Amino acid sequence: MTPGLGIHGVSYSYGAKAALSEVALEVPKGRFCALLGPNGAGKSTLFSLLTRLFTTRTGRITVAGQDLARAPRAALARMGVVFQQPTLDLDLTVRRNLLYFAALHGIGGREAEARTAEALERLGMAERAAEPVRALNGGHRRRMELARALIHRPEVLLLDEPTVGLDAAARAAITAHVHDLADQGLAVLWATHLTDEVRDSDQLAILHRGRLLADGITRDLRGDEPLREMFLRLTGAEA
Amino acid sequence: MIWWLAFRAILHREALRFLGQRGRLVAALVRPLVWLLVFAAGFRAALGLSIIPPYQTYITYEIYITPGLCGMICLFNGMQSSLSLVYDREMGSMRLLLTAPLPRWWLLLAKVTAGAMISLLQCAAFLAIAAGVGIHMPWQGYIVAIPAILLAGLMLGALGLMLSSFIRQLENFAGVMNFVIFPMFFLSSALYPLWKMKEASPLLAQICAVNPFTHAVELIRFALYLQPNLAAAGWVLLALMVFGAAALWGYDPARGMQARKGS
């Protein structure tokens, strides 16, 4: 397995309240891992730790072999993130937004122009480069967030509930698109609470109350039980 | 070089955003202009000003408060741009900024510098309008004031950044107005010279004298009249370092943002 994302014994608490306890998860390159958990399971805390919004002294996180605590810049450079919150500036053009993200990762000049053009081409949005983001619909904005997260060609892609607020068609399209990206060699961690975004061949990690309840290939984990039933059984049993 | 590339991009983005929103420029100018054209006109009769440095002659009240209003522009901008970071609207772009593969202090410095640059643009527009209604400074003063306004903008931006990392309650602008902007503005030399304040209350005058905003205003005032004011510059620089260090500590991933728990 080529190292993608490694989470080793990570714990975190807000004061006395434990949000994550001893979470361990390995996502190799070329794998789509769905992080499934109900609201409040600790997904957002885990994402904040993974993106170094804050750090913990318990446990270790590695991104393509780089330790996030010891070499944060090398690790962040290999990571692309789609946040739950929008990051695009609505008043700037599509192209301007992408150039800004490229520059934050040290890509400028002709290289940035080329990558922006390429990203827009891939999204089928080349002709909309000069429009302000405000003119785009929700699905297109999400796709742009994805293009934005990929512009520095990361090895690991993190997505925090990326389909929130999208209609069924846009949701299916973006889910399929990210599965393709995993097939092309990216390590993908996709946080969600929606079981229908998970495929049988995906890796599945179920997070509940800060603990990892299951980790494996979805097909093996669920057996004959529908995923939805299993998810409710696992997360409901402790309630 | 990636550091410089990112720095320039952050400044560029802020400038484009500012220039793209005409409404924001107008709104930013209306506030000091109301003070200058309405408040000052009504107030000039009530307040007699003697000759105090850097002025060499009797001045009108409008002339007196113009540097203070430049300070006000920097104050509002510093609070607005930094605190907008904690509102949901900007949460995503702040997170994105903090995941750029650069040291956090550098990214925050770029953010604060961008805010100071916007303050400078607004002050320039404000001073131009003021000149249009007959409130002139020596022309060289406008040039000398540029670094003074930038320094004041950096200091107040760092203050906003510090507040945004520490104080959870300040998540709406009204709170910031009441507890930060108004006290800082009124307890300063922006609207009245300190000697005038001392006549009313020595204690209040002392509070004004330690308020870093007073020194920001005096720095701009003296610069506009081409006079050095090293004490004010030193105070502003000191405040910038203290607020900046506190902001960096607040945004340290090992503590900082954890105070504002996500779900």
UniProtKB/TrEMBL annotation, chain A:
<dbReference type="InterPro" id="IPR050763">
    <property type="entry name" value="ABC_transporter_ATP-binding"/>
</dbReference>
<keyword id="KW-0547">Nucleotide-binding</keyword>
<keyword id="KW-0536">Nodulation</keyword>
<dbReference type="GO" id="GO:0016887">
    <property type="term" value="F:ATP hydrolysis activity"/>
</dbReference>
<dbReference type="InterPro" id="IPR022467">
    <property type="entry name" value="ABC_transprt_ATP-bd_su_PQQ"/>
</dbReference>
<dbReference type="GO" id="GO:0005524">
    <property type="term" value="F:ATP binding"/>
</dbReference>
<dbReference type="InterPro" id="IPR003439">
    <property type="entry name" value="ABC_transporter-like_ATP-bd"/>
</dbReference>
<feature type="domain" description="ABC transporter">
    <location>
        <begin position="5"/>
        <end position="234"/>
    </location>
</feature>
<keyword id="KW-0813">Transport</keyword>
<dbReference type="InterPro" id="IPR027417">
    <property type="entry name" value="P-loop_NTPase"/>
</dbReference>
<comment type="similarity">
    <text>Belongs to the ABC transporter superfamily.</text>
</comment>
<keyword id="KW-0067">ATP-binding</keyword>
<dbReference type="InterPro" id="IPR003593">
    <property type="entry name" value="AAA+_ATPase"/>
</dbReference>
<protein>
    <submittedName>
        <fullName>ATP-binding cassette domain-containing protein</fullName>
    </submittedName>
</protein>
<dbReference type="Pfam" id="PF00005">
    <property type="entry name" value="ABC_tran"/>
</dbReference>
From TrEMBL, chain B:
<comment type="similarity">
    <text>Belongs to the ABC-2 integral membrane protein family.</text>
</comment>
<protein>
    <recommendedName>
        <fullName>Transport permease protein</fullName>
    </recommendedName>
</protein>
<keyword id="KW-0472">Membrane</keyword>
<dbReference type="InterPro" id="IPR000412">
    <property type="entry name" value="ABC_2_transport"/>
</dbReference>
<feature type="transmembrane region" description="Helical">
    <location>
        <begin position="141"/>
        <end position="163"/>
    </location>
</feature>
<dbReference type="GO" id="GO:0043190">
    <property type="term" value="C:ATP-binding cassette (ABC) transporter complex"/>
</dbReference>
<feature type="transmembrane region" description="Helical">
    <location>
        <begin position="33"/>
        <end position="52"/>
    </location>
</feature>
<dbReference type="InterPro" id="IPR022403">
    <property type="entry name" value="Alc_ABC_transptr_permease"/>
</dbReference>
<dbReference type="Pfam" id="PF01061">
    <property type="entry name" value="ABC2_membrane"/>
</dbReference>
<keyword id="KW-1133">Transmembrane helix</keyword>
<dbReference type="InterPro" id="IPR047817">
    <property type="entry name" value="ABC2_TM_bact-type"/>
</dbReference>
<feature type="transmembrane region" description="Helical">
    <location>
        <begin position="108"/>
        <end position="135"/>
    </location>
</feature>
<dbReference type="InterPro" id="IPR051784">
    <property type="entry name" value="Nod_factor_ABC_transporter"/>
</dbReference>
<dbReference type="GO" id="GO:0140359">
    <property type="term" value="F:ABC-type transporter activity"/>
</dbReference>
<feature type="transmembrane region" description="Helical">
    <location>
        <begin position="175"/>
        <end position="195"/>
    </location>
</feature>
<feature type="transmembrane region" description="Helical">
    <location>
        <begin position="64"/>
        <end position="87"/>
    </location>
</feature>
<keyword id="KW-1003">Cell membrane</keyword>
<feature type="transmembrane region" description="Helical">
    <location>
        <begin position="232"/>
        <end position="251"/>
    </location>
</feature>
<keyword id="KW-0813">Transport</keyword>
<dbReference type="InterPro" id="IPR013525">
    <property type="entry name" value="ABC2_TM"/>
</dbReference>
<keyword id="KW-0812">Transmembrane</keyword>
<feature type="domain" description="ABC transmembrane type-2">
    <location>
        <begin position="23"/>
        <end position="254"/>
    </location>
</feature>
